[in-house]
């Protein structure tokens, strides 16, 4: 920690959170300030710790499935997909093509829902109140599709190990197409509100810069990495669940500042719509459940599967000792890893930018603390 | 020059305000007036549990097989049964369901072989006491009766 910049100034230690509205949950950041300047930060996490990984050891493989929704509750479907894929890898089964297509549609829809919540709250933190209303309005339409499909809006428990439990409902394709058509103009609308707005640009540009090398050093993934110019997306790099069949671009930007991360996420929403359109036009007929017994009992072994969640690389590492219960489940949450870069991004900046940087990292504390 | 003019006339701000202005018409109102106007939840909604009874003879459909209790990750269902000596079958005596710990994942519903246990479209589960969250067989068969507020 550097000494204070002026001879007679003293360092001020300020607690931000855990009940601060813009820490998106219960994150406590200890800020060391010299006037308005941030000299260092320290994150205190664990307020939402529920011991999810330990719970897994006391549940059967199928019973643990609903718990993963409660880690990143904004993107519950992505979490469910990651866990199901990991157990499927252990069992050496693959979900049938129809199940894979429906999974892709719902996961991409969830990506949009997650990014919309991010955009709304991020804009709210910066001081733009209008976008949050519009974002939540469109998110509602996505959540309605989840509700119609699986009966829950947030903690969905939509997928089962081996495929799907629920067949798509009457009008599923129509609703997804209607959502795609409705949503693309809305993204342009958000951009109209924000992209050129001078306050927005002034607050975001050159704030919280994290360049490509630093990203790799910290293990940061997702939009934060792509905004620094690294073309890395697990959907392309290690396709899962049939992503290799769909055409889409990986949006990247060069500067790695908060504004670029905003642009990357906006473009990602458009790409998600593109994937959904291709997937919904080609949902194959057939079974939705793979060859999985009623009692899930994988052979002794271990498996690691990582997927591209809205926030970055989400990994599930599962170890089986041959019984009906997991021996160990370890989660690699994107938010937890991305949060490590906070200190690097805000040090030397202004205090007001801390809020912008926490927002742009898009963390969910349920996932950080697990 | 053009940029300077754009800056002076606040073009970027008016561009955003124009979006807001377009949504001023009352037909764009999205808010639901909740207690007065009840939302319609999806058919597959996983809400309050119900123990179905056979509409023909009023007997419970549950065969007291205990599968739901075993499937539940939270182990919050307790099925009490008794062996009927006349028919030599297990019969349901008590059924307790602790909604305060339930996460409405639907695993119990999937496990039930006779579709006796079902998660319904009722979503108003608040009670004034903690004990009120623990539902016995009677409540489960009748379904919840939340206070309806008229306005
Ligand atoms: S819905 Fe899930 S948590 Fe609730 S009783 Fe059924 S299995 Fe248990
Ligand atoms: S699984 Fe169904 S039939 Fe069996 S005890 Fe539960 S409610 Fe009754």
Explain what the structure shows.
The complex is a heterodimer of chains A (370) and B (151). Chain A has 370 residues and is an alpha+beta fold. Chain A contains 15 helices and 8 strands. Chain A has one domain: Cytochrome-c3 Hydrogenase, chain B, CATH 1.10.645. Helices cover 48% and strands 13% of the residues of chain A. A 3-stranded antiparallel β-sheet of chain A has the order 1-2-3. A 3-stranded antiparallel β-sheet of chain A has the order 6-7-8. A two-stranded antiparallel ribbon of chain A has the order 4-5. Chain A starts with 11 loop residues before the first strand and ends with a helix. Chain B is α+β, with helices and mostly antiparallel strands. Chain B has a domain of 94 residues: 2-Layer Sandwich (Alpha-Beta Plaits). Helix content of chain B is 23%, strand content 17%. In chain B, strand 2 and strand 3 form a beta hairpin. The model of chain B has no long low-confidence stretch (mean pLDDT 81). The interface between A and B is medium-sized, with 31 and 26 residues. Bound molecules: iron/sulfur cluster (2 copies). The site of one iron/sulfur cluster has 13 residues of chain B, from helix 4.
Number of domains of chain A: 1
Number of helices of chain B: 5
CATH fold title of chain A: Cytochrome-c3 Hydrogenase, chain B
Q: Biggest β-sheet of chain A: count, sense, barrel?
A: 3 strands, antiparallel
CATH superfamily of chain A: Cytochrome-c3 Hydrogenase, chain B
**Shape, per Cα inertia axes of chain B:** elongated
- Main β-sheet description of chain B: 3 strands, antiparallel
- Share in helix of chain A: 40-55%
Beta-strand segment tally of chain A: 8
Largest interface: A-B, 31 and 26 residues
State which percent range the strand residues of chain A make up.
5-15%
Beta-strand content bin of chain B = 15-25%
Distance between the termini of chain A: 30 Å
What is the tally of beta strands of chain B? 5
Structural class of chain B: alpha+beta
H/E element string of chain B? HHEHEEHEEH
Bound molecules: iron/sulfur cluster
Question: What is the terminal-to-terminal distance of chain B?
Answer: 59 Å
Radius of gyration of chain A: 21 Å
Kindly state the mean pLDDT of chain B as a whole number? Answer: 81
């Amino acid at each position: 920690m550097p000494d204070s910049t002026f001879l007679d100034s003293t360092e001020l230690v300020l607690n931000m959170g855990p009940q601060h509205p813009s820490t998106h949950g219960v994150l406590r950041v200890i800020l060391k300030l010299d006037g308005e300047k941030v000299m260092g930060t320290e994150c205190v996490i664990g307020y939402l710790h529920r011991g999810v990984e330990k719970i897994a050891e006391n549940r059967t493989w199928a019973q643990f499935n609903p718990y993963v929704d409660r880690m990143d509750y904004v993107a519950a479907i992505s979490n469910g997909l990651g866990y199901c894929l990991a157990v499927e890898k252990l069992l050496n089964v693959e979900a049938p093509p129809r199940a894979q297509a429906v999974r892709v549609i719902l996961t991409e829809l969830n990506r949009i829902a997650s990014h919309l919540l991010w955009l709304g709250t991020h804009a709210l933190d910066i001081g733009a109140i209008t976008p949050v209303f519009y974002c939540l309005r469109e998110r509602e339409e996505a959540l309605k599709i989840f509700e119609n499909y699986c009966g829950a809006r947030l903690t969905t428990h939509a997928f089962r190990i081996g495929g799907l439990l629920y067949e798509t409902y009457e009008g599923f394709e129509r609703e997804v197409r209607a959502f795609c058509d409705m949503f693309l103009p809305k993204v342009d609308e958000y951009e109209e509100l924000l992209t050129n707005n001078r306050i927005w640009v002034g607050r975001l540009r050159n704030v919280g810069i994290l360049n490509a090398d630093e990203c790799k050093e910290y293990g940061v993934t997702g939009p934060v990495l792509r905004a620094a110019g690294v073309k890395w997306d697990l959907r392309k790099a290690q396709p899962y669940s049939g992503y290799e069949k769909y055409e889409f671009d990986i949006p990247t930007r060069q500067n790695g500042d908060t504004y670029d991360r905003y642009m990357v996420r906006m473009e990602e929403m458009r790409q998600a719509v593109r994937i959904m359109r291709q997937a919904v036009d080609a949902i194959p007929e057939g079974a939705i459940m793979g060859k999985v017994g009623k009692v899930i009992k994988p052979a002794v072994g271990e498996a690691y599967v990582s997927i591209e969640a809205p926030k970055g690389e989400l990994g599930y590492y599962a170890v089986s000792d041959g019984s009906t219960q997991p021996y160990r489940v370890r989660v690699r949450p994107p938010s937890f890893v991305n949060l490590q870069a906070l200190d690097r991004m805000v040090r030397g900046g202004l205090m007001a930018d801390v809020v912008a940087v926490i927002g742009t990292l898009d963390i969910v504390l349920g996932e950080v603390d697990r | 020059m053009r940029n300077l003019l754009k800056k002076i006339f606040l073009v970027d701000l008016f561009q955003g305000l124009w979006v807001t202005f377009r949504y001023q018409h009352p037909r764009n109102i999205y808010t639901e007036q909740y207690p007065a106007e009840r939302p319609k939840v999806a058919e597959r909604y996983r809400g309050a549990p119900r123990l179905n009874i056979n509409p023909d003879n009023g007997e419970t459909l549950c065969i007291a097989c205990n599968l739901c209790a075993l499937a539940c990750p939270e182990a919050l269902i307790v099925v009490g049964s008794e062996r009927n000596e006349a028919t030599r079958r297990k019969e349901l005596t008590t059924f307790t369901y602790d909604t305060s710990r339930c996460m409405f994942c639907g695993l119990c519903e999937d496990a039930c072989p006779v579709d006796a246990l079902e998660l319904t479209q009722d979503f108003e589960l608040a009670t004034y006491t903690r004990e009120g969250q623990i539902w016995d067989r009677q409540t489960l068969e009748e379904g919840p009766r939340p206070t309806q507020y008229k306005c």
